[in-house]
Every structure is written in C-alpha cells, then in structure tokens.
Amino acid sequence: MTEGQATGAALPVIAILCRVPLVAEALTGAFEGMAEVRSLPTHGGDTAGVLRWLRPDAVIVDDERAAESAAPYVSAEGGLLVHVSVAEGTVRLFQGESWTVADVDGSTPDAIRNLVIGSLLRRVTA
Amino acid sequence: MIQRRVLIADGAPLFRSGVRHLLTREGDFVLTEAADFDELMQAMEHEAPEIALIDLDLPPSGGVAAVGHLAAQSAARLVVWGFEAEREKVLEALTAGADGFLDKAISPTGLMRALRGMSRGETPLPRELVTVVVDAVHDFEARDRARERIVVLSAREREVLALVATGARNRQIAGDLSISEFTVKRHMQNILKKLNLSSRTAAGAFYRGLESGVTTEEAV
Prior knowledge:
The structure holds two protein chains of two kinds. Chain A is α/β, with parallel strands linked by helices. Chain A is built from four helices and six strands. A six-stranded mixed sheet of chain A has the order 2-1-3-4-5-6, with helices on both faces. In chain A, helix 1 crosses helix 4 (109-125) and helix 2 (47-54) packs across helix 3. The longest helix of chain A has 17 residues, at 109-125. By secondary structure, chain B is of the alpha/beta class. Chain B is built from ten helices and five strands. A five-stranded parallel sheet of chain B has the order 2-1-3-4-5, sandwiched between helices. In chain B, helix 7 (155-165) crosses helix 9 (181-195) and helix 7 (155-165) packs across helix 10. The longest helix of chain B is centred in the middle third of the chain and has 24 residues, at 127-150. The radius of gyration of chain B is 24 Å and the shape is elongated. Chain B starts with a strand and ends in an 8-residue tail after the last helix. Classes of the chains: A alpha/beta, B alpha/beta. Chain A binds chain B through residues 19-30, 84, 86-87, 89, 105, 107-109, and chain B through 11-15, 17-22, 83, 104-108, 111.
C-alpha cells in the first residue's frame, strides 16, 4: 500500500462503483485523507474493464451484479473487493476465491472504511 | 450567503453521511441529522429546519407516519425519500402531507437541485412519479364524479346497487330487502337509466369502483 497500483501515489487507490450515488458520496467522505478515491456510477457496464483502467488497491461496490463482475478481476490481480448491501446493511469481503460476510455494521461508512484500510494494512505487513 | 437549514431523518448512517458530505461541499445548506422518529421530533422543535428529508422506512413506524404527525404542526417542507417506491407508498406520503417525494438513488446534482428548488417553493418529484400523481388526481376526480352521480339514486336503489355489486341475483336481493323480484327489476332499470350504464355488470363495477376508490372509464 506504500504505492498505489495505479498511480504510484502514497495513498492506496480505492475504486467505488456504486448504483446509489449518495452511498458513493458517503464512502468518498469516509476515505478523505486516507485514500485516493475514484468513484464511478455502475449501471451493469463493463466493470472488469473499468477496473483494469483504474488498477485500484481495493474495490467497493453496492450492487450484487457489479460484485460478481469485479470478482474475477480482483481474483486475478490480487486486490481487495468489498460488497456493501445497502438494503441489508451487510458487507461481504472477497478474498482469495470466495466471499465472506464481514463482522461490521454495513450501514456505517466509517466501519466500511476501517475494514478496507485494515485489510489493506494487513496485506502490506503480512 | 444565506444558509438554509435542512434536516435528514434516516435510519441508515450511509445516507445521512452521504447527504452530510454533499451539503458540506456545496455550502449553501446547514444539516441536522435524525436517526429515528424521536430524534426527528426533537430536531424539528430545536432546529426548525426549512426542509426535512424523511426516509420512507424511518424507524420505528416509517416516514409516512412521521409526515402525518408533522404536517399539521410544522412549517417545514417535508419530503419523503425511498428506494423504488410503489405507487401506493408515494400517494400515501403525499396524502399524509408530504410536499414531495424523491428516489434515494438520486444523483448528488439532482438532490442539490431538488433542495434548492424547494427553497424557491418547488415540489420535488421524479419524472416517473409525475405520471403516478397525475393518474391519482384523475382517479380522485373520477371518484368525485361517480359520487355526484350516485346521489341521483334513491336510498332503496342504492341498497339494490350495493347488493348487485356483491354479485347477488334478483331473487336474493328481493329476499334480503323483503320486496318482490319484480320491484328489484324495476329498481335495476331505474339504476341503469339514472347512471347511464349499459348493464347490470357495469353497475356492479361502478359501485365496487366507488367503494375501492378505483373507477373505470366504462363505469364513470
């Protein structure tokens, strides 16, 4: 995480691909000063293509379809993928080849931020 | 710059946070937050916001109930917002006293436009919901017309019509009202003539529509 994959910047690059713009707004605010956020709307487009272009350290999506589309890219490139379910207030984490439900309050942007930053830190220090 | 007071009442911190981040950046609104009905009531009293954005699923009883409670006692403009709301929910909110309805998937630009428009007295309503509201107004008008028409019926004819609407046959109606089948037929003829309807089926549909609030072109 000392170097973002995309830009060589000191901060990690977080791609936020959301169907609900205000969720992206909330998450962008939560990561302020801690990550370089690239926020894009997702409407069932070419998620993998967008990610290849952004080359993020972590990806956050709020849509099941986008989560499934992003998983192969993250699996191949070794990034971190987080799926926030706005309706259920839950968070899933894609690591390795499978999804696990994270033990955090998915309705709180700070909790989602802490999960992402913590996971990135653990990967750097591992 | 005059900063207008906006209140967001939403059980989901993600949405409160999203609106807070947006309004802080834009600068022309001051935000107060509430996570449930009790906090909403306190904030309305202490902060006196000009605009209140209330979640359709606001804990514990929902945004429509909250609007119903506030509409009569608050000068604030009340807007309910929700995800892909059904027609009935939107109409419930507006009937309860909401000044508008917004989709929670609204863009930041759209939300700012809606809030600024409200400050000028505009009513925020997504384009797809405008049709819903117009249809509802037509339904109300049709129901009013139907109510005006039914006034021409006598009390007995209305009783007969009510039974026809349940599917009752003449013999049954005659028995229920203690009149002859011949008299029922005569009432039925009068009902069709007075309401300008073509059949017993249409008369039944007319009455059921009046009762349920949904009237059809044929019946009206």
